[in-house]
Amino acid sequence: MNHLIAPSLLAANFADLKTDLDMLNRSEADWLHLDIMDGMFVPNISFGLPVLQSLKGKVNKPFDVHLMIVQPDRYIADFKAAGADWLNVHYEACPHLHRTLQTIRQQGMKAGVTLNPHTPVSLLEEIITEADLVLLMSVNPGFGGQSFIENTYHKVEQLKELILKKNSQALIQVDGGVDNHTAPGLLKAGADVLVAGSYVFRSTDPIETIAQLKQLKC
Ligand SMILES: O=C(CO)[C@H](O)[C@H](O)COP(=O)(O)O
Ligand SMILES: [Co+2]
Predict the structure, then answer these.
(1) Is 175 a catalytic residue?
(2) Best of 66, 139, 148 to mutate for ligand 1, by most ligand atoms within 8 A of CB?
(3) Which CATH number fits domain 4-215: 3.30.9.10, 3.40.50.2020, 3.40.50.2000, 3.20.20.70?
(4) What residues line ligand 1, using a CB cutoff of 6 Å?
(5) Mean pLDDT in each 10-residue stretch from start to end of the chain (218 residues)?
(6) Which atom of ligand 1 is nearest to the CA of 66?
(7) What was the pLDDT predicted at 179?
(8) What pLDDT is stored for residue 218 in this prediction?
């Protein structure tokens, strides 16, 4: 399959959001990545359900929601109601991950599991067939604009191997520090979905930047 690009709204200009939403609608972006932070799981607070609700219908892209919150199970139904299409929970925040992923699917969303940089891919061995997507963090979650952690290439390769071994359909997504330098190696290693925040929204021509990320060959 051709790889997908998911710009992260965290890096948008919230004082002039309409301009960025119009840009996204005209762009080749595949999904809109939405970073939900609670100040507990990560040391930062971003935005939440009312923002998603108000964006639904304004952006013609599936909502790819990255929950960086403790006890995400409490909010699964709320995020469905707010318009989430893909719901990603952190492995580190879910003591009953199997149940959590099942609940997300039962609610009619695609279920993603996210790994922090220190969490090994091998821990997914018994759960990979229950996930529609695995998101590998290539920075420590909580902030945009951080430097890419080089070990991520290796983790993508390991995850690809695990997915093939277990005959899983899960997509491989990478989030953090994705740009024109890191994206080619990630695609070569097996990534299916690239999240890009600062690289897209800080560029002088975001539509062209998204188009260039789409055109990369692995
Ligand atoms: O989940 C995230 C941070 O926790 C963001 O999606 C990620 O950091 C994207 O930002 P950038 O591309 O600027 O690194
Ligand atoms: Co994210």
Answers:
(1) yes
(2) 139
(3) 3.20.20.70
(4) 8, 10-11, 33, 35, 66, 139, 141-146, 175-178, 195-199
(5) 97 98 98 98 98 96 99 98 98 98 98 99 98 99 98 98 98 99 98 98 98 93
(6) 1
(7) 98
(8) 74
The protein residue whose alpha carbon is closest to atom 7 in ligand 1 is: 176
177 among the known binding-site residues?
yes
35 is a catalytic site residue? yes
Domain ranges of the chain: 4-215
For residue 104, the model assigns a pLDDT of 99
How do beta strands 110-115 and 133-137 pair?
parallel
| ipTM for the predicted complex | 0.98
